[in-house]
Write a structure and sequence with these properties.
The chain is an alpha+beta fold. It contains two helices and 13 strands; from the N terminus they run ββααβββββββββββ. It has one domain: Jelly Rolls (Sandwich), CATH 2.60.120. The strands form three sheets. Strands 1, 4, 7, 8, 10 and 11 form a six-stranded antiparallel β-sheet that branches. A five-stranded antiparallel β-sheet has the order 2-3-13-5-9. Strands 6-12 form a two-stranded antiparallel sheet. The longest helix has 24 residues.
Length: 181
């Protein structure tokens, strides 16, 4: 991460075939999230429709040349962090993703909070700091989400990252539903 200016830590992407638990998480969560994604697209007047199954969505990714899986393990040691970013890996992107905490904050590490920064047009950024427990998942937007304004819905950009780990080792599993170029 540091060499690329993304932060201080390391990440390892899985290859196909994915570990069974990772494949199952993507497969089982996707249809529920696709319903949300389709409502979001409709509210924003976007003609995009997301397939009912993850396998169908991956066919769309692969047709666009996005054949590399994106689920990954993230690891941070003392003073490790992840800069604010968005996980977009090609023209086809799914608007929601998930992170699962693999360990216990306070037991395995201190610090290392999950940080979300929302940038609304013509307003100061809004910051949310999450400390999910061991085995808990956080589902968040990959790029933007719809927000109702006085003239209808508009897009609000979101970036995410991890604050500095002050003690121990922090691990998490990132589940991104689109594949990469």
């Amino acid at each position: 991460m540091q060499r690329l200016g993304f932060g201080r830590g390391d990440y390892k992407y899985f290859s196909y075939p994915l570990p069974e638990i990772v494949r199952e998480l993507r497969t089982v969560a996707y249809p529920h999230l696709a319903q949300v994604a389709n409502r979001w697209a409709e509210s924003l007047g976007d003609g995009t429709r997301f397939a009912a199954t993850h396998a169908e969505f991956l066919e769309r990714c692969h047709s666009a040349g996005q054949n590399r899986p994106t689920p990954l393990i993230l690891h941070y040691e003392i003073n490790g962090y992840n800069c604010l970013h968005q996980d977009i890996y090609g023209a086809v992107a799914f608007p929601l993703q998930m992170v699962i905490i693999l360990g216990g904050q306070g037991r395995d590490w201190e610090g290392g909070e999950f940080v979300l920064v929302e940038q609304r047009p013509r307003a100061q950024p809004k910051v949310e700091v999450l400390t999910p427990g061991e085995g808990c998942a956080a589902i968040f937007t990959t790029r933007y989400r719809p927000v109702r304004g006085t003239k209808g819905f508009y897009r609000v950009n979101l970036r995410h990252g991890v604050s500095r780990v002050r003690r121990g080792s922090r691990y998490s599993l990132g589940i991104i539903f689109h594949d990469s170029v």
